[in-house]
């Protein structure tokens, strides 16, 4: 894991902790209000029906409480998902708003990483946003790719490197082998998406740690991870 990825992970987890504290208090207030309303209804129900159907009233009580717990859990899960989405969306915006020198350095690291993942082949196609070429000219992009492959120039060992602009991409490069069989999407959106799958269970655990509204069994298990290539 790169230093940039570790920094991003730390920022995402810290943001999740802060949001967990705020949402824990809000969730507790909502839970107390719901439980107060349920208790009031249960007291009224008992006064009216206890004399003729005490056993039935107790069964009804258990049913109502179970329904309230399910509703609290449902609301919490919906709120948790909205918090997680906001955390990762904020990370994308923060990276996109970085100053040009930081963007340039990050792009160089991501390009070298993507080229190494695709590896040497008969040719490489590097796709970038047009604006990024304002920070790094074609020649520099090719040189970074060549260096990542261990070559002094882009043309050695039969490997050609072609730079293509693509306005639909986010920040960061997409590197493909010329035959299209290997591909690494190292754009901000793709990396955040991969981190989302990796960090989502950890961030969800931080949020759940501040509330009793999680189902028995603990946190979700993280899905199998990996870098897209």
What's the short version?
This protein is of the alpha+beta class and 229 residues long. The chain contains five helices and four strands.
Strand order of the largest sheet: 2-1-3-4
Largest sheet: 4 strands, mixed
Q: What letter string, H or E per element, gives the SSE order?
A: HHHEHEEEH
Low-confidence stretches: 152-156, 213-229
Give the CA-CA distance, first to last residue: 16 Å
Please compute the radius of gyration using only Cα atoms: 26 Å
**Beta-strand fraction estimate:** 5-15%
> Globular, elongated, flat, extended or rod-shaped: what is the shape?
elongated
- Tally the structural domains: 2
Number of strands: 4
Q: Roughly what percent helix?
A: 55-70%
Number of helices: 5
Structural write-up:
It is a single chain. This protein has 229 residues and is α+β, with helices and mostly antiparallel strands. 62% of the residues lie in helices and 8% in strands. The protein has helices at residues 3-49, 54-96, 100-118, 138-148, 188-208; strands at 123-128, 160-165, 174-177, 183-185. Strand 1 (123-128), helix 4 and strand 2 form a beta-alpha-beta unit. Helix 1 packs antiparallel against helix 2, helix 2 (54-96) packs antiparallel against helix 5 (188-208) and helix 3 crosses helix 4 (138-148). The longest helix has 47 residues, at 3-49. Mean pLDDT is 77; it is low at 152-156 and 213-229.
Topology (SSEs and partners):
Blueprint (H helix, E strand, L loop, with lengths): L2 H47 L4 H43 L3 H19 L4 E6 L9 H11 L11 E6 L8 E4 L5 E3 L2 H21 L21
Parallel strand pairs: 1-2
Antiparallel strand pairs: 1-3, 3-4
